[in-house]
Specification:
Structural class: alpha+beta
Order of helices and strands: EEHHHEEHHHHHHH
Radius of gyration: 26 Å
Strand order of the largest sheet: 1-2-4-3
Mean pLDDT: 79
Low-confidence stretches: 1-5
Distance between the termini: 66 Å
Shape: elongated
Number of helices: 10
Length: about 240
């Protein structure tokens, strides 16, 4: 994120940023920023911390309303303390500068609306600008999180669970050769790719983890695979 003009926006007459913007700027998954905020809120012992954050929603590309948070300068500082590294420090400085610029512009003398129509136009402009920025970031984070790859740990666990499930099913057929067990692996992998809508397992993304894991746990070989295995077994007897 190179455009610091969008780091801080006006919301309800206050300079704020959003959990969406923080996730985008710091390269985090939005759900992890939400978790960090709610972890702080769950242990809050005074109202000052609660006033730093305001829960809200944004509309995802699929029409679903997803949770997000607005946060003022203090709320941002509180959350950003947990982000470390040279790159993170650079973004912190950009945020501080953006907050300073926004707060300075708010305090600067300005020509006040002289009619109710002008006042309404000013309010609508600020609201529309804020909503447009939230929507832009919501779309960006949806796209980012849709394409977030599986972590090495998750991919490794899926692979182990596939081997375990194939082993569980194979026991029902008795002693199987490596070639026969290969039929089972091909069957379960075909199903995984169909469930996730991918061509290879290496294309699996974070969003696929739960449905693929549910499929593995419930998987049974297709009728065709069962028939082929029974034919192998019959020929061997």
């Amino acid at each position: 994120m190179n455009d610091s003009n969008h780091l801080v926006i006006m919301h309800e007459q206050q300079a704020v940023t959003t959990s969406l913007q923080v996730a985008d700027a710091f390269g985090k998954q939005h759900k992890h920023v939400i978790e960090a905020i709610e972890s702080k809120l769950s242990t809050a012992e005074n109202s000052a911390l609660l006033e730093m954050f305001q829960e809200s929603t944004y509309q995802a590309r699929n029409g679903k309303l997803n949770k997000m948070y607005y946060m003022n300068r203090d709320g941002f500082t509180f959350i950003a303390m947990g982000f470390t590294g040279q790159k993170a420090d650079g973004f912190k400085l950009k945020y501080i500068s953006a907050f300073n610029q926004m707060e300075k512009s708010v305090k600067a003398p300005m020509q006040l609306p002289s009619t109710p129509q002008e006042m309404l136009a000013l309010v609508l402009t600020n609201v529309n600008d804020s909503n447009a920025e939230v929507k832009r970031l919501g779309d960006r984070m949806d796209s980012y999180e849709d394409n977030m790859p599986l972590s090495p740990g998750e991919y490794s666990f899926l692979s182990r669970r596939i081997r375990q499930r194939v082993g569980e099913v194979a026991r029902a057929f008795g002693q199987l050769s490596a070639k026969q067990r290969g039929q089972l692996f091909r069957d379960i992998n075909t199903g995984i790719k169909q469930v996730a809508g991918v061509d290879t397992r290496s294309q699996l993304r974070d969003k696929h983890y739960k449905p693929v894991m549910d499929f593995i746990n419930d998987w049974e070989p297709s009728t065709a695979t069962k028939t082929v295995l029974r034919q192998y077994i019959a020929e061997a007897e």
